């Protein structure tokens, strides 16, 4: 019974990945181009999200600043989810809805990229970060699910929306993580050439 339940998670996750691959490969490739333009012109990536998506935001920035699978120069990325002093001060003095947007206004420059992650597309602090990024002439890569929610309206035509076609938060997050690894792999391939992985 329990093992069957566990196996069903694996099957559902694999099914979604098969189904989503042809739907998401184009927006993911568009996101790669946005990231490449950013890093080759001296820009940086700011990333944000709540809960599991905060972990995803940090996962991405760790692989940009550190490395993914291949040796390469450092790439600039900052997760806006990590500084507890900044987060508590902004939430305490202003509102939790602006914990990311104030950091975007403080750190964002034209040509930078905001990686905005929300499985529902409806988290107010992520939506406010998108608005702040537009004020700073940044491109936004939005990762969502469940039809995209309010992120559909928040994003511009010049942004990239990667919307996972599933309603369950955990399944959406599983495809978000795969997407982040696709982004890291493709940026490395375009920067270094299409070689085999070294790690
Ligand atoms: O990881 C999970 C569920 O798998 C949760 O921590 C989840 O990330 C949180 O409930 C978030 O607050 C959901 O926000 P969002 O993805 O809708 O923006
Ligand atoms: Zn989770």
UniProtKB/TrEMBL annotation:
<protein>
    <recommendedName>
        <fullName>Phosphoheptose isomerase</fullName>
        <ecNumber>5.3.1.28</ecNumber>
    </recommendedName>
</protein>
<feature type="binding site">
    <location>
        <begin position="92"/>
        <end position="93"/>
    </location>
    <ligand>
        <name>substrate</name>
    </ligand>
</feature>
<dbReference type="InterPro" id="IPR050099">
    <property type="entry name" value="SIS_GmhA/DiaA_subfam"/>
</dbReference>
<feature type="binding site">
    <location>
        <position position="63"/>
    </location>
    <ligand>
        <name>substrate</name>
    </ligand>
</feature>
<feature type="domain" description="SIS">
    <location>
        <begin position="31"/>
        <end position="197"/>
    </location>
</feature>
<feature type="binding site">
    <location>
        <position position="59"/>
    </location>
    <ligand>
        <name>Zn(2+)</name>
    </ligand>
</feature>
<dbReference type="GO" id="GO:0016853">
    <property type="term" value="F:isomerase activity"/>
</dbReference>
<feature type="binding site">
    <location>
        <position position="123"/>
    </location>
    <ligand>
        <name>substrate</name>
    </ligand>
</feature>
<comment type="subunit">
    <text>Homotetramer.</text>
</comment>
<keyword id="KW-0119">Carbohydrate metabolism</keyword>
<dbReference type="InterPro" id="IPR004515">
    <property type="entry name" value="Phosphoheptose_Isoase"/>
</dbReference>
<comment type="similarity">
    <text>Belongs to the SIS family. GmhA subfamily.</text>
</comment>
<feature type="binding site">
    <location>
        <position position="63"/>
    </location>
    <ligand>
        <name>Zn(2+)</name>
    </ligand>
</feature>
<dbReference type="InterPro" id="IPR046348">
    <property type="entry name" value="SIS_dom_sf"/>
</dbReference>
<feature type="binding site">
    <location>
        <position position="181"/>
    </location>
    <ligand>
        <name>Zn(2+)</name>
    </ligand>
</feature>
<keyword id="KW-0862">Zinc</keyword>
<dbReference type="InterPro" id="IPR001347">
    <property type="entry name" value="SIS_dom"/>
</dbReference>
<feature type="binding site">
    <location>
        <begin position="50"/>
        <end position="52"/>
    </location>
    <ligand>
        <name>substrate</name>
    </ligand>
</feature>
<keyword id="KW-0479">Metal-binding</keyword>
<dbReference type="Pfam" id="PF13580">
    <property type="entry name" value="SIS_2"/>
</dbReference>
<dbReference type="InterPro" id="IPR035461">
    <property type="entry name" value="GmhA/DiaA"/>
</dbReference>
<feature type="binding site">
    <location>
        <position position="173"/>
    </location>
    <ligand>
        <name>Zn(2+)</name>
    </ligand>
</feature>
<comment type="pathway">
    <text>Carbohydrate biosynthesis; D-glycero-D-manno-heptose 7-phosphate biosynthesis; D-glycero-alpha-D-manno-heptose 7-phosphate and D-glycero-beta-D-manno-heptose 7-phosphate from sedoheptulose 7-phosphate: step 1/1.</text>
</comment>
<comment type="function">
    <text>Catalyzes the isomerization of sedoheptulose 7-phosphate in D-glycero-D-manno-heptose 7-phosphate.</text>
</comment>
<keyword id="KW-0413">Isomerase</keyword>
<feature type="binding site">
    <location>
        <begin position="118"/>
        <end position="120"/>
    </location>
    <ligand>
        <name>substrate</name>
    </ligand>
</feature>
<keyword id="KW-0963">Cytoplasm</keyword>
<feature type="binding site">
    <location>
        <position position="173"/>
    </location>
    <ligand>
        <name>substrate</name>
    </ligand>
</feature>
